[in-house]
Amino acid sequence: SHITGHALDSINNYPKTPALNMFTKRQLYNISRLSGFKNVDFYYPIPNHYVNGVLLSDNSLENAMVGNKIADRFLNYDVNPNNLINEKMLVDDFMQTDFTFFVNSYLMFLSDDNSPKTNYAQVHRGILTTLDDNCCKKIPLTEEAVKVLDNMFDFYNSETKRLKENNIENIKYALCKKLDKGLTFELAKGIPMNRIALSSLFNHNQLLAILMEYKELIYKLYPNRTYNDYKIQDIVLENVALVENANIDLNMANIFKEEDNYTIIDYDKTTDVIPLNYIVAQGLFVLAIDSNFNFREVEYLKLLGLSEREIAIYQAIYAKNVRN
């Protein structure tokens, strides 16, 4: 056990540490209901709550392919683990029985009848993100997360002002408001652009059209770009379009399209100076992952006007960002 330091101690309810106790899902549910909560929603961190690689919901358990989202091995940050089992195979086996009984730990959301039911929950970078039928909320769990959300709110206000000053009327950031602790966002209308692209994977002309639309949107979003030599992350970029205070999370999944209007969500990662073509390239790198690498991103980046040297540079930057 990572708590007591005794191997497999938790299997027998921590006999050497009486102050600790274990509960089954049924016991937790009954305790919650007896305490007066009407809505009890369970989420399942995999492989466990302190090294969370994937967070599953009851809805996602209905997907027979959910096991494909589980890595063969997860990182462990406190000690070097003894890998006695293949965690992915174990999850796949449990999915065929009673996964919610065997799961290591639970994330629970408790509410009364008047609260909206949570449809989605995720913890990332110390921020708890929940989604219900009314809005998306981001709640900081650490001091660093408070700074991230404060910067996000400032970025929303400055970007909304900039779009208005540049008369960009068909692109907007999802409405952001401050809570006593955290932020709330309006739900975006339309369809994520990555879903449109993925549905066109086997239609070259349609796919190229939506990718070109994506690139044009990025350039329209930042019309006052400058041209200069610049060094970013020890990689020299020559004569590329640079923009200050750019949203580096402008992947296609974070842009919702409704007719000719676009709403941008999830803008918590920004940087002072970034090449516009890097944002475009990163969007296609992420799309390749979403497509299970059925998408030839390098070929399409060339069709979007990027050179082989430029693509190679962006691949190196992206790989470094992923590692960090």
Protein model, in words:
It is a single chain. The chain has 324 residues and is of the alpha+beta class. 35% of the residues lie in helices and 25% in strands. The protein has ten helices and 15 strands. The chain has helices at 25-34, 58-61, 87-95, 99-102, 143-165, 193-198, 204-221, 276-290, 297-303, 308-323; strands at residues 39-47, 52-57, 107-111, 120-124, 127-131, 136-140, 171-173, 176-178, 183-185, 191-192, 226-232, 235-247, 255-258, 261-264, 270-275. The chain has a five-stranded antiparallel sheet, with helices on one face. It has a four-stranded mixed sheet with strand order 7-14-13-10. A hairpin with a 2-residue loop joins strand 4 (120-124) and strand 5. The model is unreliable at 227-236 (pLDDT under 50).
